[in-house]
Amino acid sequence: MLAKLHAESFSEEAWPIEQVRSSLRLETTQGWVAFEEAKPAGFILCQVLSEQIEILTFCVRPTMRRRLIGRRLLQSVIAHARENGQKIFLEVAADNEAARKLYDQLGFEITGTRPNYYRRGAITIDALMFTYKRP
Q1: Around Cβ 123, how many Cβ atoms within 10 Å?
Q2: Average pLDDT in the 108-125 region?
Q3: Following CA atoms 67, 63, 94, 110 in sequence, which dihedral angle do they give, to the nearest 10 degrees?
Q4: Closest CA to 43 of 20, 70, 79
């Protein structure tokens, strides 16, 4: 279910089903899933350690975007981090304007860059590293 949603959201860049399964097998992995009409609309998978949370992947079904689903999922992770005194880290493709805007609106700041991190055929895209800065 999650791998199918991931593929729908990321096309060629989607995680293979085994990558989703192996992440879910780790004790440190936590996830939040949003449902709409009993169907998964989006999810976030994170590595949760005592002092930090790394968002591994985050997606919303393309036909369900712009309905605040992604915002609510991310706010759930932020609430969890606040309750447990954890920092949140993530990275995103520099050309993903919608995600960058959401992260900015919710209090994330760019803290680094990984040049040429994502490959899309013959081109590469930088990864921007974000950290949640609001208490």
Answers
A1: 9
A2: 93
A3: 20
A4: 70
Quick one: 2-132 is in which CATH superfamily?
Gcn5-related N-acetyltransferase (GNAT) (3.40.630.30)
Query: How confident is the model over 6-52, as pLDDT tens digits?
Result: 888 887 777 888 888 888 889 999 999 999 888 899 999 999 998 99
Distance, in Å, from the CA atom of 53 to the CA atom of 117, rounded to the nearest integer, reads 21
- Show the DSSP H helices in 2-134 as ranges: 2-10, 17-25, 69-84, 97-105
Q: Residue 56 corresponds to which amino acid? A: L
pLDDT of 96: 92
Domain positions in the chain: 2-132
The alpha carbon torsion through 13, 53, 94, 135 (nearest 10 deg) reads 150
